[in-house]
Each structure stands twice: as C-alpha cells, then as structure tokens.
Specification:
Layout lengths: L3 H20 L5 E7 L21 H15 L3 E6 L8 H11 L2 E6 L6 H9 L4 E5 L5 H7 L4 H10 L9 E8 L7 H10 L3 E8 L23 H16 L8 H10 L5 H5 L7 E4 L4 E3 L8 E2 L5 H5 L2 H11 L6 H6 L1 H9 L8 H5 L2
Parallel strand pairs: 1-2, 1-7, 2-3, 3-4, 4-5, 5-6
Antiparallel strand pairs: 7-8, 8-9
Helix pairs in contact: 2-3, 8-9
Bound molecules: S-adenosylmethionine (SAM) and iron/sulfur cluster (SF4) (2 copies).
S-adenosylmethionine binds next to strand 2, strand 3, strand 5 and helix 13.
Amino acid sequence: MSTPFSELHAGLDRLRRLVEREELPPPAIIDAQLTLRCFMRCRYCRIWTFEGEELGFEPWRDLVTELRAWLGPFQFIISGGEPLLVPYLTELLEHCRDLGVQTSLTTNGRLLDDPLLERLGRSGLGTLVLSLDALSPTHDQLRDSPGLAGHLRSVVEHFGTSSERIKLKILSVISRANLGEIETLLDWAEGCEELTAVLFQALAQPFSTEFRQDWYLHNDLWPDDLEAVDGLLDRVVRRQAAGGKIENERFQLEFYKLYFRDPNQFVRHRCNLGRVLLKISNQGQFSACFHMGVMGDLARGSVREQWYSRQADEVRRRMRRCDLSCNLPVNCNFKENAALVFGDRWREFDRDAVEQP
Ligand SMILES: C[S@@+](CC[C@H](N)C(=O)[O-])C[C@H]1O[C@@H](n2cnc3c(N)ncnc32)[C@H](O)[C@@H]1O
Ligand code: SF4
Ligand code: SF4
C-alpha cells in the first residue's frame, strides 16, 4: 500500500534521476574489446576463457561513426583479448583515421613483424602499447612464451621508418615476479629513442575470474615484500621527477604503495567510473562495468540513448555501492576515477585523505 512517505520517496527518486541525467556528461573513455580470444596463457589473465561468436567489422564501424558524431574527436582504445587476431583490424583503424578518431592498441606483440607494423602504420594507428614486464626470461615465464621478451626488444629497437608515425609505449604489470627487474627495464626504455613512454599497472585480480576481496591473499604473484615495493615506487617517482619517460601520474605511483598494502582501497572510496567509461564487449554489449550489469547493446540502436537510459542508471547506482577491488579504477582508469572521487585537487597527493575517506 502506498503511504505519503513512500510517495514522497518515489517523487524524490524521480527528481534525483532527472538531475543526474541532466548532469551526466557523455562518456570520456571508450574502450573496445574487439576480441577476447588469445593464444597466450599469461599467469595473471584468464580473459581467453571466453568462447563464442564475436562481432564483425560493420557494427564496430557504425559505432565509431555514431561516437564521432556524438563526442567529436575522441580516442578509441582497443584492448582485448589479443587485438592483432582481429581480421578486420586494419580496416577499422582506417575508418577511425578517416573520421579523425585517435586510436590506441595494446598487444602482447608476439605476432608483430615488419609487414604487420607497416600495415598498422599505413592504417593510421596512433599508439601501439607493447606489454612487457621484464627484459629477461621472467617475461617469457609470466606469459609462457619462450623468447617473447627478446622478440619485443627487437621490435622496439628496429621500429621501422614505415611505422614511425605510430607512438610506441611499454606497459608493465608490477608483480612479485618482476619487482627486481623494473629498473633495468626503465634503463633500457630511457635509452630507446623509439619509445615514448613506459606505463605501469599494479597486479590486479586476474581477468575473468570470480571477483572476491581476498583474491590477493592466494595469488602467488602478489608481492609481499612491502619494503621492496615502496623502495621501487619511490625510485620510480624520483626518476619521473628527473624527466624519466614514465606516463603514470605521480599520485598513481604513490597510490600503488597503499594498494599493495590493501588492494581494496576503492571499496572505501567508491567507484565513479559509471559516469565516464564506456566499455564495449566483443559481442556488442556495453557498460562501464560488466560485473555490475549491462547498460546497453549495439544491436538495440543508439548508444547515446542507451547511455542515458534507466538501465544504465541502475548499473551506475550498483557501481557506486561496489565492494570489490578491480583493475579499472586502480590501473587503466585511475586518473578519471580519482578526479571524481577526490575532487579537482586530486593530484596533490594527500595520504591521509586517501586512507581516511
Ligand atoms: C588484458 S591485456 C590485452 C591486450 C594484450 N593481449 C596484451 O597482453 O597486451 C591488457 C594488459 O593488461 C595486463 N594485465 C593482464 N592481466 C592483468 C592483471 N591481473 N593485473 C594487471 N594487469 C593485467 C596485460 O599485461 C596487458 O598489458
Ligand atoms: S594478458 Fe593479453 S596476452 Fe596474456 S592471456 Fe591476457 S589477453 Fe592474452
Ligand atoms: S571497482 Fe568499479 S569497475 Fe571494478 S567491479 Fe567495482 S564497480 Fe566495477
């Protein structure tokens, strides 16, 4: 039975929705998982366990066209799975280039050779991010791929003239396995003209595993030597201040020190990515966080309309109450979430504010 109180509550809820929708900006980060297929079996990733039909070229082309009209020039981030397995990849990159959409692609690099680099260069790829955790066989062991570190090193050092318009970056996951090797990697990167930047991520719960708060207690790649973690991150911060090619914000590097003590930092700080992130799955569903539900589907028409739908609002509401820790606010989308959680002055790292929200 409805009471004056429940009617008031429903009315306030309708008002809140109206205000939120009005204030909600279009998404600022577009992350496309063209495929979840992968031929590698890295120790920290099980994304490849996905099996099933994936979209072809046309829906992705139409999505880029719609987003360009809605957002203006934007950056189309291609992740995965292993994107170099996507048969229509260069066609899609060309479409992005023709519309003035910037592209960035992260790869394990195993399939890269001169002809492929040349094709990527010709299709207008903006940034190529190579995953590389160490220069030694540590990397090969993490990825169960003998000779991979040597191959990537050679790709970087012989980065051809045909691909020179592509910006080249290294992405390195900090874990117990490579803690002692990161500075050697940085020394090498600093000496490589071809490399624009090195970007660090902290080990997160392996993708496509059941999310739980205590995952790190049972993960043998989780570093437990906190002194070594702090020492490394302090030196990385110093190298950055001295002009090193390190792309992470300083705050993020400082934050990692807290993260390795308690990876559930954002459980206490809330995840606000629902307001900025649009991730599109290999099957055309989209959301800011698939763990909290699907916001829409490319097959159902306008992404813009679905972004402002009740269904999308509901996912945002669940996200704000999330009590999990995951890769997105900690690594890939740290900056955007920190700005929403800590406000405009988030770059002035204040440890007390972070520890006691
Ligand atoms: C999921 S992969 C997809 C692209 C491509 N297959 C690759 O490996 O570069 C994207 C990035 O996530 C990183 N990654 C994988 N598992 C991770 C984890 N558990 N924690 C943090 N980063 C992870 C990978 O090392 C890679 O740099
Ligand atoms: S991290 Fe990349 S290369 Fe490794 S299994 Fe996952 S998708 Fe494949
Ligand atoms: S932290 Fe954010 S992105 Fe990660 S599971 Fe929770 S709501 Fe989803």
